[in-house]
Structure formats: structure tokens, C-alpha cells
Amino acid sequence: MPKPRLPAFDPADVPESNATSYPEKFRAANSKRWNRRLGDHAGLGNFGVNLTRIVPGGQSSARHAHSRQDEFIWVVSGEVVLETNEGRQILQAGMCAGFPAGCGNAHRVVNESTTDATLLVVGDRTPFDEIDYPDIDNRAKAGTDGKYVYTRKDGTPH
After folding, report:
1. What's the predicted TM-score (pTM) here?
2. CATH of the domain at 53
């Protein structure tokens, strides 16, 4: 019989991955960010929690806005630049930002410093979410299973 898992754990015990479901031509831009999927590790189903490490020159994702899902970012360590529809803002450790579902404020975080930065990123998993990427020819739609299907903005497959 397997040993019961306690609810508390060390985030360092959760493997880091820089995998992305983005279409191939957009993946390289995200290769300098690493996620520890803490929510998945804890068995959470209603929302995701990621500890994201962005190395110098990396980005969290392409600039994007969710139609149905809220997203919250807290800078745990380091310094990053938050890019939104309003422009650029430097965020230091302890600062945070939130993006309500449907607000249309496309955002991403980039690390222009010389040291790694760590973010705690929390987002819900509302089905049928759509993601707009205003700076690249990409759009995503989630089905009932929560998995995203990516297309060009005109709806054709990548």
C-alpha cells in the first residue's frame, strides 16, 4: 500500500519544466522560463499555481489576454518588466499584478536583469477560455477538457 501524501510539500521537490503547448514556431521564445506546477502537484483542479523562474532574457509567455480566466502574478524574487496594453512597468520582489477575465489587458513578464527572477502565478481553469495574443499570429481556445487548441488569428491551423 502506498504511503499517504501529506498536504504540505517543498516546492523544490516539484520538477521544473519549460515545456509549452504553444505551436512549434512560438516555443523558442518561452525556453528561458521554467515552471514548477505546484497546483497540479497538490491535486488542485479549479485553479493552477505555478512557481515560474525566468532566466535573464526570458519571458513568461507571449503577451496575452484571457476571455474567461483570471490571472494573478506575484514577484517572489528578482526584478522583471511587466508589459501590458498600458506600457511597461518594473516589478520588484513583493509586487503583484492581477488580470481579471475578459479585461482585454494583454500582458507578459520579461526578465531584462542579469539574475533569475521567480514569480508565483495563479490562474483559474474555467472551461472554454479563449486567449488572444495581439503581438503574434496565435489564438487559443480551450475545450471542456481545458486543453487549448491553437490556431492562427484567421482560424486556420498552425
Report:
1. 0.92
2. 2.60.120.10
